[in-house]
Amino acid sequence: MSTPNIIFILCDDIGYGDLGCYGQEAIPTPRLDQLASESMRFTQCYTGSSICAPSRSVLMTGLHSGHTRVRDNFAIVGGVSDQKRLPLEPDDFTVAEMLKGAGYKTGITGKWGLGEPDTTGVPTRKGFDAWFGYLNQRNAHTYYPPHLWHNEEKVMLDGNTDGQQKDYSHDMIFDFACDFIREQKEDPFFLYLPWTLPHGAYEIPDASAWDDKPWTDDEKVYAAMITKIDTQVGQIVDLLRELDIEEDTLLFFGSDHGSARRWEAFNSCGPLRGQKGTMYEGGLRTPMIAHWPGKIPAGAVSDQVWYYADFMPTVADVVGLDALEKTDGVSILPTLLGEDQDLGDRALYWERHAGGGFKQAIRWKNWKAIRPPSELLLDEPLELYDLENDLGEEHNVADQHLDVVAQMDRFSREMRTDSVNYPIGGKGSHA
Length: 431
Description:
Blueprint: E1 5-11, H1 30-37, E2 40-46, H2 52-61, H3 95-101, E3 105-111, E4 130-134, E5 147-150, E6 153-156, H4 169-183, E7 189-194, H5 217-242, E8 249-255, H6 281-284, E9 285-291, E10 300-302, E11 306-307, H7 311-319, H8 333-336, E12 347-352, E13 359-364, E14 367-371, E15 383-386, H9 402-414
Helix pairs in contact: 1-5, 4-5
């Protein structure tokens, strides 16, 4: 179709209800709300997983969590180091490799989580020309780390030695993103921004704007983190306008999964049940804004059902590349352009292996099936919810719709392949 710049801002742990345009009242998000009014806002967009690494793997490969390489935060069998992190392999074709092959400059800054140092999964070996940030997810549990990575070189942060907290990683990551945009303004680029905010640890240079609130310290920092995200998304949009490339840029904003806490002071999960790590809507449904002036209708609100496996085929369609040979997704470009697109009969699939054990979820039409973890594994009965009438997943209606349950059970077995790294029933715990 064209060669627009493509930016995907992926925040870490933002809940469905954390933005004003999704009902948030305690934390103002004026720039994101304004962006939503100029964009298409989705009410039924889903992440790749309810946990960090597999959600990113789905986004990068276009394969859902029953097919993609990385299906949980660590491998049940194999993996690298004592944390058992599983890297992407050479044959895991990424959206960055696809776009680089189409002549795009490719950059990433933030938290990667799909390859440890010197493995096949580091960003510069998976299609990215420029990379700055965290490789290891556990290292990203502080905003004052001893080091970050620039391409394949370790960058020591002297301001964070001997107990000092001077080099705030997220601000360095944001500056790298802005520099990349300025440097690549003349050529088509893909910029992936997997920001660590608002994931814990709950650290930020200044949360004083919230001192008068009757909240815990963590809640005040979380609010400041949401404010920083809002401000910096606005600054990125301002930069695109300053460089006169906003109309040539397709920008997505979403989260990697649901909120890590329900944050009752903010109602972070909105009307949804569950949170990060669970297979309920609060773990999988994400706020999503898509912005492309002159192409995407401004102020549109779409109830199209889609998920992160669709990002790669959508981008291929936008750029005019041949349809992908290996993907679990479909292009939602017609939806983005304001056209009618009927995707109502397809099923969406998720699975996890840690965090209590093997579990699955399937979305089909208005139905949502969940197989909770148990020793019965694939023989554990499915829960069934009618999302059209029960968004909060409060009423399990499996006994009343045995035909739907039977179809969901077929999906749960046919839509996945076995993985040597994630055997069903293998034991592990989230890290």
